[in-house]
Amino acid sequence: MAAKNSPEWWADRLIAKLSKRKPNLERLERYYDGRVPLAYATSRFRQEFGTMLAAINDNWCQVPIGAVDERLNLDSFRVGTDEDATKRALEIWAENAMELDAQIAHTEALKLGECHAIVWPSSVQGAAPVITIESPEHVIVELDPENRSKRLAAVKAWRDEELGQCATVYLPDGIYKLRRGRKGWEPRQIEGEEYPVENPWKVVPVVPVANRPGLSDDSVSDIENILSKQDMVNKLWADMIIAAEYSAFRQRWATGVDIPKESGTDATDQDFMAAVDRLWSTAAADAKFGEFDQTDLSVYVGAIEKLVQHIASQTATPQHYFVSTEQPPSAESLRAAEAPLVAKVRRKQRIFGAAWAEIMRLALEMDKVTYTGRVSVVWADPETRTESEHIDAVTKMKSLDLPTEMLWEMAGLSTADITRAKAMRALDAVTAAMSAPGVGSSASPMQPADTPEEIRAMADAMGVLIRAGASPESAAARVGLSGLTFTGAIPTSLRPPADQATQLEQV
What we know:
Radius of gyration: 35 Å
Mean pLDDT: 83
Structural class: alpha+beta
């Protein structure tokens, strides 16, 4: 038996937990994909109709997850007030194609209760740290019961066709790659790599992205509490199809008639066999004919609709996600109906955002980026609003004297769009300043100014250039004020942003 807290001990412990929860994860996958057997049916029912009804599955499990997932859009990161660190964080995010993988992570966490992200430096010199999204069927993390923010260990386990069962154990002191041999776990040597791999960051680099985490229990899937209702819906659909099959042709009855038999048999005479193209007739004076009422299928439809309403209510999903109507709801009623869903999404943003911030913090640390402040996540607005309503609200916010860049964020511009807008705005300001009357250029500087108005125009143009990122000396030369002496103390109003320090030197 492996020593407690050894890599082999952690491998055995966490793989046992993986095996224990695997059946439930597979069950959730089947329900989400709509691959579940018919429940609430007797063995005789399955024997008689199982083959015919095997394809029935009115899958509602994807709707609540899709409603949340489509509004969970991670827009950007903000690293304190450090623009350089923020820019590097976005570069790391883009190099790992996390725009797509983050959405996959959200879907997996909503569906299965959690997924994981592993962060580690790239083997390529100068490349960004690698962030990979992992399935909870293969990766598990154990938290410290005394401090749930601390990760004690993590394991990624899988079966290789050549090596058999493999595991990678992540501990604060190192990364241990193992394979199951005849006598137990043994090192899994990787060419050109030491064993174990040193972990200089002294933290487990596996971060759980957990959905609805609890203090004592594991995280929970968003569809866990509606699986039984999904089974009921499928059973009612099966019952309705059977009822429709056997009541499609109405059964007839007759009284006062001695129905003849075919000669020498117990079979009914062909004249009284019920069919679409047959008519019953008799000479008996007291004969009466009739037919049984058809089965009322609306009973099944009503029961199914009631179950779908329960699913909508218990998952905070608006009714219009389940039922399409010819008349779309008004904007006000739509916002009211979606209020519980929006509140639910905002809760998810806080929970998932904490995980993504930790993931990016690790990536920046491994990338040796120094910064002040904390890493935070910028989410897209989950509310449904028309473009005119949205822009009108942002325009009104301007009266609060908010910074322009903050208003751009409220308007929904991405970080890349805001960077472009700032650069283009600076170029427009430079162009306008350089074209002002009496202002020269680096190519054809003007002659010394003769009037205070001309000097003021030059000074204004020089200020625009400095704010746009040009150095004071080059700005003065461009507007025709060469020969000025600068002390190096730039007024606060003229200090250019760090990311534009050299942007306009060639203008």
